Backbone:
């Protein structure tokens, strides 16, 4: 992979989505099971100019009550605007009503998910399945755009097709053209096919084709294989797209946004956060988790995040093991006291540590 030179980084244009000003064009993707309020707030505190909530089903939204166990799905922190709500479903009419629920909750942008490659999602005619049926996909986009107030932008998340066939490619561009005709403000395009899921490289060259196809009629954000600040800037530089959405690369590593901002400003890349800095962020994340859920649920919900944070620790395997045992706040505090006692240096997270989690 070619390294990016700070001296060759062109000035990045600030990103806008419709009438919503985003600013720095490196943002956090929707991450199923991860991008809840605590993760989004932490990302914003570390330089992400925009975040998207984890994807929600239209049926789930329409049935959602204000019970303590589920109300957090629609929680928005005052500090995190602009924030996007992402929606997935099968039926056009129900889909549009689900979008309206996100509007009522206060999300600034509504994002339609046509990208999720998970088998059970495809089997229920949701997510990436819509890339195989352009007429239904475009109907969903039109109905969603029609029901959402005009001042709130609607965007779509897509993969480059169901597979690598010419037919799949044609359907992708048919849906993309339908999105523009329907008045959508932007599209996020993942460089893998639905069939690929998360295996193999993301084809960044396809993003170049997409941006050339839409020109200035629509903003294009790229996705796929963004694990370092250099990756983020290189994708923009190589493809000509308007911005990037960071998924796996941001789990347990919110510093990626700070690092991208520094490089884009022509400054040296900040070093990995030391242990004292890591401890502050992990504790803040835990406190946000407690406030969003409750004292009992927070330790269990934090484990998956703590495991990811452990990748920045020089003794990551030992730390990870202790993090899997967290069950109470006391367990959490003992783990922090044991493994984060000083300001020793952290480490850069290797690519293989990012696992298979991905934006849906």
Residues:
């Amino acid at each position: 992979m070619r390294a990016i030179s700070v001296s060759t980084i062109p000035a990045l244009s600030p990103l806008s989505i419709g009438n919503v000003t985003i600013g720095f064009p490196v943002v956090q993707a929707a991450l199923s099971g991860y991008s809840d309020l605590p993760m989004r707030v932490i990302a914003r505190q570390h330089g992400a100019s925009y975040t998207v909530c984890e994807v929600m089903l239209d049926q789930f939204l329409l049935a959602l009550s204000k019970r303590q166990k589920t109300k957090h799905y629609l929680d928005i922190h005052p500090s995190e605007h602009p924030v996007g709500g992402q929606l997935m479903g099968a039926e056009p009419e129900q889909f549009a009503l689900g979008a309206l629920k996100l509007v009522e909750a206060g999300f600034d942008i509504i994002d339609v998910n046509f990208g999720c490659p998970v088998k059970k999602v495809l089997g229920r005619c949701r997510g990436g399945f819509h890339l195989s049926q352009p007429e239904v996909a475009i109907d969903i986009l039109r109905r969603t755009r029609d029901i959402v107030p005009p001042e709130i932008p609607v965007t779509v998340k897509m993969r480059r097709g169901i597979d690598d066939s010419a037919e799949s490619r044609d359907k992708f561009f048919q849906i993309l053209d339908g999105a523009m005709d329907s008045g959508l403000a932007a599209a996020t395009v993942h460089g893998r096919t639905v069939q690929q899921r998360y295996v193999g490289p993301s084809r960044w060259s396809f993003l170049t084709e997409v941006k050339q196809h839409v020109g200035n009629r629509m903003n294009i954000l790229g996705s796929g294989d963004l694990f370092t600040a250099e990756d983020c800037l290189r994708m923009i530089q190589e493809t000509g797209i308007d911005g990037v959405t960071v998924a796996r690369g941001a789990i347990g590593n919110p510093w990626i946004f700070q690092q991208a901002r520094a490089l884009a400003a022509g400054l040296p890349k900040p070093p990995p956060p030391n242990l004292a800095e890591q401890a502050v962020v992990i504790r803040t994340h835990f406190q946000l988790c407690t406030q969003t859920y409750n004292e009992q649920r927070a330790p269990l919900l934090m484990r998956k995040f703590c495991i990811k944070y452990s990748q920045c620790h020089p003794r990551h395997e030992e730390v990870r093991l202790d993090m899997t045992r967290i069950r109470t706040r006391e367990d959490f505090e003992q783990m922090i006291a044991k493994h984060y006692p000083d300001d020793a240096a952290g480490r850069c997270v290797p690519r293989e540590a990012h696992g298979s989690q991905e934006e849906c």
